[in-house]
Recover the amino acids of this structure.
């Protein structure tokens, strides 16, 4: 019984000793100063601003390229229309067609009134 009593007494002593030695509380010191926090905040704000500016610039570039492409398409259509009109002019300005129109309007070919000019 003495062994048992000693074991119980030793256990009580160890428990009481652990309670008697409270560990000192360690304060966590902030390694980041308020100035550094401000600088980090400003850095984040600057990154957001620059990112927004880049996206806005890319959107403007895309819009401008779309406008240029539309203008190129319009130019191509206008060139095609001009080509068709030139072909129609060539078709309508043939000598035989002009002569037929002149006959319809009552004009006659008089070789005495024709004057020849020499070109360079």
């Amino acid at each position: 019984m003495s062994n048992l009593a000693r074991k119980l007494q030793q256990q009580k002593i160890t428990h009481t000793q652990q309670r008697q030695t409270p560990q000192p509380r360690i304060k966590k010191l902030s390694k980041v100063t308020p100035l550094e926090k401000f600088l980090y905040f400003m850095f984040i704000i600057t990154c957001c601003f620059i990112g927004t500016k880049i996206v806005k610039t890319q959107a403007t570039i895309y819009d401008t390229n779309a406008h240029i492409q539309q203008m190129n398409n319009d130019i191509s259509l206008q060139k095609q229309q001009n080509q068709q009109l030139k072909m129609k002019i060539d078709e309508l300005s043939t000598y035989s067609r002009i002569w037929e129109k002149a006959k319809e309007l009552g004009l006659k070919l008089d070789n005495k009134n024709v004057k020849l000019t020499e070109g360079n």
Remarks:
- The CA atoms of residues 30 and 56 lie 39 Å apart.
